[in-house]
Every structure is written in structure tokens, then in C-alpha cells.
């Protein structure tokens, strides 16, 4: 064995017995051989004498690479030798008398690689040098199946490598591909097609696999050749005969169907296309899809029918003549029943979009009014297709019920997949409302009467369709119960499915009831049925925790909508929910996994909304609330008492228990208005105050547990809204406990609470704020950087993000103080030491911060402080030196120099708003400081930017005129002119 053969065998060895070093040596040796000038001759010689497939493949791959890289650099003699040799091998000819190996007898992958090599030569030489390559090939087809098979492989490789537009191409490849097609159309396509016909006619019974290969090649070429060469009285009958004859192989019949689909899909004038489609008499194949047979053949026929229907529909849309539309609709009416059948029962090619086709057909129906009987029948079939498509695969039933990873993925996929189908359902409903309503009713009747748990997926689909259908029903129609709703909603409410224990069925059942609640709102006799559905094992008492939690949320929505109409049923509701309430705050429940915002707490919000209505008698209301709050508070007190003796292992479960109780009380309180609690029913307010007192103890006992601090803070927020000003006595204690922790997260929570208090009560919180502001300012200024936050790699840490959030919240806090008549806080004796640091921080931020909206807030704070603190000429300024600070620092840096920086982009909307605030600030400073402002600002700031004197004078005049719009326009133009001059070091700082 030659050294090259040995090296190639080592290179391709996959046994794992050859070490990597030897493999590398073999690779290096082969690469070295590739660089030899005679490498093509070496490869061709090896192809003639070696029967080792590894050697054959390496030689063909090397030929392919060398021809692509170096063919144009070779001598004419060398190129001729390669071309003649490769073509001879392809045509099953001996190169000389010593040639003993026939490559066409090798495995398929070797023949495919050989075809690829010939296509590379065609790329380089056709048609300018080797224009006869295809004509030269045709006489060799008489040698039999081996050469015919090779001819098919060459045509397929030519399509893949050069012609087909299904693959990305370079501009050069597109140009060459176009040239090859043009030349083939002109000189050899007709001969090739004649050869295809003859081969199929001769071999259809003796070598059906070969005929299948010929038809596969033909299918690839139909899209760009003259269609009359195939769509004629010779070929079309032959193709249909191949499809319809039972004795032929399924592969051959499927290949023939593929060619017919290519004919159907051929792009052409729509009048010609319609004539072609009409001539095919496609009904001949309708019966094939309903027979038991090879799935691949049925899939091919299904693709032919759906492709045909899509083309007919396109003709209907494109043709304007009555005759054209009439013929198109006749052909559609003929083919659609079979299309609907394959949509429901066959595996369709992924390239065919069922929803897109049906949506397009439904859209054409809108132009046909009224619909004919046959079209109404089609509507019913479309609805059946939708139903079949939205049904879950029973294979995933268990996964979806327990909601494991596979179940989650399948549910997400189906939710996305169903969106377009439900849009189609609503479109059908608009085109044929009566048919759609009857379909929905029949689906629901079938689901309700379903006797077995085996029909889980069908029941879920019927409920989902009814739910989706509700989206297109108007509020008025919903309330009136029109369009069968007066029959369907009671049927739904009465339903108890054998498969109701299934998670998906239970969820969509409750969602559907919720969607149709407006009907119940007007027809209150059905309220007991709604309550039963939500309160029994179909809803809140469902064994699946996911269903239970979702039912709690949906029941809260039921209560919000029906409100006072539920008062007569209140005792029944509360009695039914006793075990649910107890379970939520029990140790066992808190150990269960929480699922986002739906943690079951909505049941307390629902109860709060129920008992918090003024329609509930005062005594009953107090009893209801006391029966809920008292045991919960006692539970918290007991847990706090035992906290001192808790072991390390016990603490987390107890903390979680307290957390659940606070969530429950918080949710419960959402149903009570401030007017009721502080006005008409003060006893209710007293109960909430006592509860607040108990929960504030949590901050004392567990000062460092963030989850509890967060829950208590949230409850304080709620009590501010519920108790109003009567919450004030409890605030000092709450704020004192919150101030014990100075971590950024906790400080953010405290500032948000103070913002709420200020916005709600304005100056009433002055004394409280005066007490806490010094501590807040001291701690925050101590942790925030004086300049910018660090940037670059490694700086986006959790700590930095928390500080940035704290900084943003601080600016909001300062802004709220300034804009709610509380700026005197900054000047109080306790806060005075922090005045200068706060003003310096606001100054720096007003012109340096990256966030334009933060800068705007700082400018607005300064404007408000100027108005509050500067009252001359009526009196002395409240803050000595404040005027000088503003003119020399704020006006110069923020209102002038920062605008000269090109990063201040006037085309940005937020920046333009900031600019407007800056102009307002200058106007206010002039109004308060008068000529002092003009003298210092214009005389010191403008000259530094090399501003001409006449522009400075114009600025003074505009400011004195008092027209803010004119001032803003002039000042923007003034800044842009200074930028263009590019004078002074301040322009590009």
C-alpha cells in the first residue's frame, strides 16, 4: 500500500486506536501532497486504481478544493486533462486499458462528491468554454441505471451549489447561476426533459427507485424552465398515472406528486395559472388522502392539495374578471373539503402555514355577501380545523398536569401557537356569526356531556374556544346574553366534568367563567352558580395548588365586579373560605413553593372587598373583621414571644409564617376605604390601628430580616392610605425602627414611604420630617460617592446598582420636599448642618449627571428654593450667600457652561425639556435677583465663552421682556452659535 493511502486511512480512522501524534503526522503528510503541482493527476490516478472509499473521498475532496482555488492558474493542458478525466469517470468510461476501478459503483456519498467536483468544473467553464457539457452527457444515459443515477446527482448538485435560491449566494454566484440557467434554457433543457420522459417510461416498472431520482431532479428544475415542456399532454398524464397506480412504489408516487406540486407552484401570469390549474383535474387524487397507506405518500398528496388550493386562492384574489373569480371559486369549492381533511388528519409540510391560508380564505369571504350554502359548509370545516389544531397532544397530559419542565415548555409552545388560531376564530365569527355560535355551542355541549376522563384534551379545547370567542363579544351583547350566551353561560356554570381534576381543564373553566361575568352581573339569578364554581372543588378547593391560587385571584375579580350583589351571600362565602384562610397562614402552607404574584393572598383581598363595603351593617362588619384580624394578630404575638427561644433551625419557618400573616392582613385591608375607616366606621379604624401596633413589633424583634422589614413597610404604606392622618401617632415608632438599618435597600424603602406621606399630607408631616431628615441626610451622604459612580468592566455590581437606586430615590425625595411647601425643613436647626452638602450635591448633579431627567429634577428644586427663600425687596434673604451661590455656581455651570458641551443634544426630547427648565430658572433668578443677576452672570460667564457683546445685550433684553418662548428660542440659538464658533476652552471641555 502506498504511503499516501496509509496516511489517508490513518487520517480517517475513527476506531480510537491511533494516537493523536500519528494522526497529526498523517494530516501533515496529506497536506504536503496537496501542495504538489501534480496533485490533480495523483488524485485521478488514485480514483482509477484504488477501491478504498477513504482514498476515493480524499481524492475527490482534494480535486474539489484545488479546482476551486487554482483552476484558473493551471495550464490549458492541465485543465483539459482534469475535465476529460472527471467527465469520463462520471460517464462510466475507462481512462485507459489499465483502469480497473469504477467510481460509479462506490457508495452514494462518493458519487455525490464526484458530482460536486463536476459542478465545480461547470462553474468555471460553462458556457464560455465547455458549452456542450450537458449535451455531451445525454448519449451516455443509454449505458444504463448507473449513469442515469449519476446524471441525476450532477443535476441535483448543480441546483444546490449554484442555481437554487434557497441557499445564501454571493453576487458572483448569483450572476453565474443566472447565466447557467439562461444557457441551459436556450440549448439543452428540452433535450434533458425528453430524456427524463424516456427514462421514466422505460424504467417505471423495472427500476422505480431510479425513476424516483429522476423525478426528484426534475422537481428542482420546474420552477425556472419553460412550463410548457412539462405541463403538456405527454408529461402531466404520465405524472398523474404514476401517482394513481397502486402497484408502484410509494417513493415513486410521492416523487410524481412532488413534480405536480412544482408545476402548480410555478410562478406565471394568473390567467395562465388558472387555466393550468383547471386543466389538471386535481380531483383525481382526492381519494388518496383518505386511504390507509404510506404516511410519506399521503404527506406528499396533502402537500399537493394544499399547494394547489393556495394557488387557486391567489388567482381568486388577483383576477378581477367575473369569469376568473367564478372559475377560481369553483376550483376552491372542489378542493377545500380535501384540504380541510388533510389539515385535520395528515402531517403537513412545515412550509405550509395552515393559519395563513385559512385567514386568507376567510378574508376573501368578507367580499362575498351573503355566503352560499357551500361556503357556509366550508366555514364549519374551518372551525373544525381550528378545533383540531388547538387540542393538546395526550402524550403530554401528565407533564402538563404536574407542570414539570416538559409540561411548562409544551404549555408555552401551545399558548404561542394558539394565538393566531384564536384570531382566525374571531375572524370567522365576524364573517359567519351564526355558524360560529352553533359550533361553539356544539363543542361545549359535547364537552359537558363527555362521560370519560379520557377526553381531557377535547374538553380543554372546547372551553378554550369558548373563552377565545368571548373576546369578540361586545359588553352590551355580553350583558344581554344575546347570541346563545343565555344558553351557554348557565350550561358552563352547571358543568362538572369528570376530568375537572386536570389542571388545564380546571384553569380554563374558571378563566372562561370570569370572562363571561358581565352576563351574570345583569342576570343575578346565576350568582349562586358562580359562587359554587369558585368555592367548591372546581375552584378554590381544587386539589392542585396552581388551580387553587389562580382561583383565589379570579375570585377576587369576581368580587370586584359583582360587589354589592354578593352581600346576601356573604355568610356562605366566608364560611366556605374558613379553611382556606386558616391554611394560608399555617406552617404547612408556607412551606409550599410560591408562584410569583399568585401566592393565594388574593383570597384575603376578595374577603376585604366583600366585608369592606358600606352596604354591610356596621355591627356585622366589625364582627367579620374582628374574626379575621384578632386570631392573626394573636398568632403574630405568639410567634414574637417565642422568638427569643427559637433555635437556628426553627427561625426561618417562623419568619415565613409571620410573613404570610402580614401578606394576608395587607391584602385584607385593601377592601377598606379611608372614608369608611376614619369617618363612618371608626371602630374599623381602631382595629387596623391595633393591628399596626402589633406588626410594628416585628421590626423590634427581627430588625435585620429584610423580608419582614419589607412586608411591614408595605403594610405601613397601606395604612397611610387606609387610616389617613390618624396613622400619625404610629409613624415615629415605625420610622425609628426603619432608621436602625442604613443599608441602601432599606433607605430606599424609607424614602419611598416618606414620599408617600408628603404627597398625601403635604405640610402636615412637617414635624415628622423635621425629626428624621437629619439622620437620613447624614447616612445617605455618607454612603453616596461625591462624584460620579465608577464605570467600566467590573463596576456593574449589586452594591453599585443599589447605591444608584438610592441616589435616584434621594433626588425624588428632595424634589417632593421642595415642591410640597416643605423647603423650610432644609433650614431647621437640626437640618442646617446638612444644607451645604445637599446644595453642593444638587448643584453637581444639575449639570454633571448622565440622566437628563435627574438633572431636570435638580433644576426644578433650585427654582422652587429660589421662590421660597428669596423674598427681596420685601425682606432679607432667608439664607445668606444663597444668591451668590446660585449666580456664581448654578447659573454659570448648569445654565450656561453645561449647554455648550456637545453632549447636550437639543434634538433629544428629554434634553429639550431640561433646556426649558433651565430657561425658566434664569427667568426666576432675574425676577428675584434683578440686575445683580445680569451683572454677575453676563459679565463673568459670557466673556469666558468669548460671547460677543451684542449677543450678551440681546440676552439681557430678552430676559427683561419676560416672554419665556422668545427667550427660550433666542437662548438656544445663542448656545448653538457659540458652539459653532468653537472659541474658548469651555466649548469643548
Structure characterization notes:
This protein has 989 residues and is mainly α. Helix content is 71%, strand content 0%. It has 47 helices and no strands. Helix 14 crosses helix 15.
Report mean pLDDT, rounded to a whole number.
90
Query: What percentage of the residues does DSSP assign to strands (E)?
Result: under 5%
Biggest β-sheet, characterized? none
Low-confidence stretches: 983-989
Percentage of residues assigned to helices: over 70%
Subunit arrangement of the protein: single chain
Q: Count of helical segments?
A: 47
Distance between the termini: 78 Å
Tell me the radius of gyration: 41 Å
> What is the molecular shape?
extended
Q: What is the SS-derived class?
A: mainly alpha
How many beta-strand elements?
A: 0
Short summary:
This protein has 47 helices and no strands. With 989 residues, it is mostly helical.
Which SSEs are present, and which pair or pack?
Blueprint: H1 3-12, H2 20-34, H3 39-49, H4 53-70, H5 76-90, H6 108-125, H7 133-137, H8 145-163, H9 171-187, H10 189-203, H11 208-221, H12 235-244, H13 250-265, H14 270-280, H15 295-318, H16 322-345, H17 354-365, H18 373-390, H19 397-402, H20 405-431, H21 433-448, H22 456-470, H23 475-480, H24 485-494, H25 503-515, H26 517-522, H27 527-535, H28 545-562, H29 570-584, H30 587-590, H31 602-611, H32 618-642, H33 651-669, H34 674-680, H35 682-701, H36 706-723, H37 731-739, H38 744-761, H39 766-783, H40 798-819, H41 835-848, H42 852-869, H43 882-900, H44 909-929, H45 931-944, H46 949-961, H47 964-981
